[in-house]
Structures are given as structure tokens and as C-alpha cells.
């Protein structure tokens, strides 16, 4: 008999992760994957284009929740997903990452005694001011299958008392998709369209509330980006949350007027990958980009105090800047001078086969 697995997506970073599962689903004929979209992200640039580019199927259900406060958004996803499950109960509910859609559906499924699988389990920033950290802790505590990207995840889960038999070190599904799409992304040469030299520019993304919701912090970052643009052109892909905050602080117009800064609407997955792969440095607060740059061996300066992905620092190309702008400038100068030294080892199990390991476990239930 076919086992049906609901694969939950909601926000932008979910799509490339689940694409790895759909890409190999044919190899597991006893499993039926059903794509459920919560509608947490709804703009074409934040959602629709990802479904198309990554070859994902039409969702069997779209809960259409949209944006609102955390409590309202989470509650609306729970109500919608419970209705779906009442109509069409799966054997497993699989959630990825740490967004509100993940915690909401995991909670519904666990209460309805449906097995919960969490992909990207065990990551911890130990910073409970981050909404994602709360989502991670609760989702993991509800999960029956904890699929872990990096060894720190196992250690964190064991320290929290999770039974070891639930934990599976499988590698990184986002890197599966990265490897699958890399050649096509490279062929796009998106930087040439923008008139930029390969390995001659910085790629910037920012969206964490801790960086963009506070005027002082945001204007401090903008000053550093302006400084950076004297060294190299800066391509800044502006998330809707960030755009709103830059506009209300009158910083968007300021950046728009500068020759060395290219402001872009949110880029599609393939365009972002194309820009990233030819960048000299990536400056970000995204978890995904910390991992992708490590896999691609591109220097990454992370504008955060902490990371839930320590392997990107220990074995990858990531440096945490933590508001230390003297360090930021030193690292930019090192990168510019070709002397930025980081480990360049291949990370264990980030090999393009994580999705296969996950479905091989779920096939046995
Ligand atoms: C969410 C995730 C975050 C993830 C990020 C990636 C949570 C708690 N946060 O944060 O972990 O890294 O997605 O983008 O789940 N908006 C649009 N169009 C859209 C979606 C959002 O304009 O399609 C605007 C809305 O004004 C909204 C704001 O962006 O208020 C923020 O969206 P929201 O989903 O609340 O959080 P993100 O900051 O995107």
C-alpha cells in the first residue's frame, strides 16, 4: 500500500529543500509525496517562481494564510492544516527548517497522532529572541523522525533528551538541490547581465528582524554597505520585510542613488544561485546562504551574533561579524587581497544524496 507523506512548504527557504525530495521520489514507488502550501509567502517572487524553477508539482492544497502576526499566522495555518488532515489523513507530515509553517503543521499532526518528520532538525543558535529558534525547539520536540544536517544537531538533540533512535544524520537537502541546479545556474551568467565582472562584486541579502526592524541597526548596516561599494559593486537582493523598513527609514532612496549599489527585487532561486556563484563575497543573515557559500567555497560574512550552523564556521567559509564593523572591514580587505583563509574541506554527507537517505528511512515505516 502507498504511504502518503504531506510535504509542508510555506516560506521561501522551504522550496529548494523539498525539491530534493520530489526530484528522487520516483525511486520510492511505495511513497506518495503530497505538496501542501500554507501560503505564508504568496508573492510570485517569494513563492510561485520557486515552484516553477524547481520543477515542483502543483500543491494539492494551498491554505492561503498570508502575512500577519506570529500568533495569527501560526493559528491560521493550524486551522487550515487540521481541516486538510480531517479530509485526507497522511501517514507522515514532513516539515523542513524553522518557519512558522513548520511548527504549525508539526503541532497539528502530532496532536492527531500522525508521525512527524523534521528535516534540518537539531540546529540551535541558543538565541531565544529569534522566532526561528523557538520554532526549531518545539518542532524537534514533537518529531518522530529527526533528520540532521550536521553533527552539532545530534549533540544538541541528545543534550535535550531526544531518544537517539529517532535521530538520523542524513546531510543537507538544500545542498542536494544546489548541486542539481548548479550548471544551469552558472549558464545564466546573471552577473554579466548586470555588467559585473566574475568574482568582482559582493552579493548581499538581509531579512532577519534583528537586523532590519531596528532603525539604528539597519542604518549602521547601510553605512557599511556604502563603504563596501567603494571597494566593489554590491548586488543587494531586497526582501519585502527589508524593503518596507528601508523605505520607512528613507534609506531605500539613499541606496538607490548610489552607483556602486544594485538594488534588486527578491531574486528567483536560479538567479540568486547564478549571482552567488560568481560573487567575490556574500554578506547575509540567511541560514541557507551560510550553508550554500560553504558548499561552493565562497567567502561569507554573516551579520549575526550567532549561528545555528556552526559547521559553516568550523569547516566552511563563514565568519560571524556580530556587529563588529572593524572585523567586517578587515575581512573585506582580506577577501579583496586574496588572503581570507578558511577551511575548504568538503562537509561530511553534503554530497547530493541527503533526500535519498531520508526517503529510505521513511520507506520502512
Ligand atoms: C520568514 C521566516 C524566516 C525565513 C524567511 C525567509 C518565520 C518566523 N520566519 O520570515 O525564518 O528566513 O521567511 O524569507 O516563519 N511579505 C511579502 N510577500 C510575501 C511574503 C511576505 O510582501 O510573499 C512581506 C509581508 O509584508 C510580511 C513580511 O514580508 O509582513 C514578512 O513576512 P513573514 O512571512 O512574516 O516573515 P519573513 O520575514 O519573510
Low-confidence stretches: none
What is the helix fraction of residues, given as a range? 40-55%
**What's the assembly state of these chains?**
single chain
Number of strands: 13
Report strand order across the widest sheet. Answer: 3-2-1-4-5-6-7
Secondary structure category: alpha/beta
Question: Could you tell me the strand content as a percent range?
Answer: 15-25%
* Alpha-carbon distance between the two ends: 12 Å
Query: What is the radius of gyration computed over CA atoms, rounded to a whole number of angstroms?
Result: 20 Å
Choose one word for the global shape. Answer: globular
Q: What's the average pLDDT?
A: 97
Q: What molecules are bound to this protein?
A: uridine-diphosphate-N-acetylglucosamine
Summarize the helix and strand pattern as letters: EHEHEHEHEHEHEHHEHHEHHEHEHEHEHH
Q: Specify the number of helices.
A: 17
Written description of the protein model:
By secondary structure, this protein is an alpha/beta fold. Helices cover 47% and strands 16% of the residues. It has 17 helices and 13 strands. The longest helix has 18 residues. The mean pLDDT is 97. Bound molecules: uridine-diphosphate-N-acetylglucosamine. The site of uridine-diphosphate-N-acetylglucosamine has 19 residues, from helix 1, helix 2, helix 5 and helix 11.
Helix and strand topology:
Elements: E1 3-9, H1 12-23, E2 31-37, H2 44-53, E3 61-62, H3 70-87, E4 92-96, H4 100-111, E5 115-121, H5 131-142, E6 145-148, H6 151-159, E7 167-169, H7 173-188, H8 190-193, E8 202-206, H9 209-212, H10 215-229, E9 234-238, H11 240-248, H12 251-256, E10 261-264, H13 269-277, E11 281-284, H14 287-296, E12 300-302, H15 311-314, E13 318-320, H16 325-336, H17 354-362
Parallel strand pairs: 1-2, 1-4, 2-3, 4-5, 5-6, 6-7, 8-9, 8-11, 9-10, 11-12, 12-13
Helix pairs in contact: 1-7, 3-4, 4-5, 7-13
Uridine-diphosphate-N-acetylglucosamine binds at residues 11-13, 40-43, 46-47, 67, 98-100, 131-132, 207, 239-241.
